[in-house]
Amino acid sequence: MTQLPVSFDDVQTAQHALKGVVHRTPVLENGEVNDLLGGRLLLKAENFQRTGAFKLRGAYYRLLNLTPKQRACGVVSYSSGNHALGLARAAQMLGTSAILVMPSDASTAKMRATQKLGAQIVTFERDTQQSRDVVARTQAETSRIEVPPSAHPQVLAGAGTAALELLEDASALDTVVVPCGGGGLTAASAIVMASGAPSTKVFAAEPELFDDTKRSLVAGKPVPNPVGQRTICDAIMTPIPNDVTFPINLELLAGAVTASDQDIRAAMRFAFEHFKIVCEPGAVAGLAAILNGQIAIKDKVVATVITGGNIDAARFCALIGDKA
Amino acid sequence: MTQLPVSFDDVQTAQHALKGVVHRTPVLENGEVNDLLGGRLLLKAENFQRTGAFKLRGAYYRLLNLTPKQRACGVVSYSSGNHALGLARAAQMLGTSAILVMPSDASTAKMRATQKLGAQIVTFERDTQQSRDVVARTQAETSRIEVPPSAHPQVLAGAGTAALELLEDASALDTVVVPCGGGGLTAASAIVMASGAPSTKVFAAEPELFDDTKRSLVAGKPVPNPVGQRTICDAIMTPIPNDVTFPINLELLAGAVTASDQDIRAAMRFAFEHFKIVCEPGAVAGLAAILNGQIAIKDKVVATVITGGNIDAARFCALIGDKA
């Protein structure tokens, strides 16, 4: 086994550091749903996390570990929105500033909320520009520190605290399914389970048209998604697995599963009806893969992370309202 | 102090009996909301309870305490929907049958779900018939046992377990605000706080046009609501305080507050945006009275029970979608 960049101990250290900063979110379960599915379904509700997504965990922890001098330089990152919100809030709480590089088609609700937290937004064109080039340019111009959404060990250790809480609050987990964009929460969850519950299988769940991790696991190396495709899962619409998270996922994951946008909408409705929770599309990729049958749940205990709930009312209603 | 029909010990006994049957629902809190309000807001999320509302607690506990012979007779009750769901499910779990007397304008989602749980529905006209007459007739015809939505000590003891969990999970509560229809959860919460946290003030929260408890507390005796009025809060649209819950509320409550239907919609939107949860209108009467300023929260710890989340997607979206 290769030496991984993040250990179980690192996640425990992060958990200690984040105490009182991030919310310990509940693990939801419903008796009637379990009867329906023939197994136990657990939802780690990170849509209840401060700023509406798990991302605050990694962003805050990374910022906390900067030296005062580094922190004073301010931070910069790419994000489709949830990491933007987490990083903007962390910057605000720790007395520094953030610039966020966001795709021009990012959720308007997420953009507005990011600005409201005092961060500056720089947009780029998803199909013709690389986010990393825009971040690099901004970084060079301003000497800000980059806090990537997933490709940093401290960001992963922070994200892993969600999985660590799940491990502490649930027992006898057969399977954990994690919505996967950049692969950070997936990798961090795999690290936590590999040490804390080695028999628990961890799967990445991706949108059908953004299954880069699935194909990359098969190929044994990062393979990109074709340019120009779209999914309603704005939070996990990533071009290619990155160099920090992919080696971990290749080493530790049991596999990857997918969900169509139709499956995603059905899962959002399921969460609305049975769990009374508001999920954004990307947050239910794991739930959708359980409901569409790609993840077996009969006679098993299966958990998935509901990664976020940042969606405005009009968009939410458009997605859950029409059963077509 | 008059001898109350339910004691703190009764609620503890009920809690023991309901273990493994009802879900221990989480108490939700959000750091950004607290910053916004200048105090701590806690939501006891009974919309996550099995069958989508706190009512299963009281219904199941009452059924559990029937003799086998009584239980075999089946049960009957009035309900606008949430007690119907709780009682239907409890009957199903304990191997008996339920007839529910529901107003003809009850939520279609609640009616459908009640039937799906195997219960039979008898409808009545809200403005021209008394639910109690219809229940009495059904009871006489069938020898079924009546399990009222609130007017029975064991139903109250069961409902009180929600407040007992809140007491165990939250500390230093200044105020608890409870949505109030028949007044059962309000009375049960007041009993729990009077013993467990005597300095905590308990308020009833009612729809502006169904403020019978508020006016009755002033009058010192049950005063009815005018016939023919409506509110979007279908779960707490009751005609008059009842003889079991009102004496308790008169003895123990700090007061009653109200919310307009517009306040209720704003509170549903607030819960959607900041807590990512689905609430039915009646469930946010307490939250609405906090947000409309009738309950002080600055520098305080204020909890409210989100009593249920049984609302279909179309209705939910109609209520939160239009900001008029």
Which helices and strands occur, and which strands form pairs?
The structure is a homodimer of 324-residue chains.
Chain A: H1 8-18, E1 27-28, H2 31-37, E2 40-45, H3 55-64, H4 68-72, E3 75-78, H5 82-93, E4 98-103, H6 108-116, E5 120-124, H7 131-142, E6 145-146, H8 153-169, E7 175-179, H9 184-196, E8 201-207, H10 212-219, H11 245-252, E9 255-259, H12 261-275, H13 285-291, E10 301-306, H14 313-321
Parallel strand pairs in A: 2-10, 3-4, 3-6, 4-5, 7-8, 7-10, 8-9
Antiparallel strand pairs in A: 1-2
Name the descriptors:
homodimer, 324 residues, alpha/beta, Rossmann fold, 2 domains, 14 helices, 10 strands, globular
What does this entry look like structurally?
The structure is a homodimer. Chain A is of the alpha/beta class and about 325 residues long. Chain A has 2 domains: about 10-55 and about 150-320, Rossmann fold (3-Layer(aba) Sandwich), CATH 3.40.50.1100; about 55-145, Rossmann fold. The first copy, chain A, is about 45% helix and about 15% strand. Chain A has helices at about 10-20, 30-35, 55-65, 70, 80-95, 110-115, 130-140, 155-170, 185-195, 210-220, 245-250, 260-275, 285-290, 315-320; strands at about 25-30, 40-45, 75-80, 100-105, 120-125, 145, 175-180, 200-205, 255-260, 300-305. In chain A, helix 5 (about 80-95) links the parallel strand 3 (about 75-80) and strand 4. In chain A, helix 3 packs parallel to helix 5 (about 80-95). The N and C termini of chain A lie far apart (about 45 Å). The model of chain A has no long low-confidence stretch (mean pLDDT about 95).
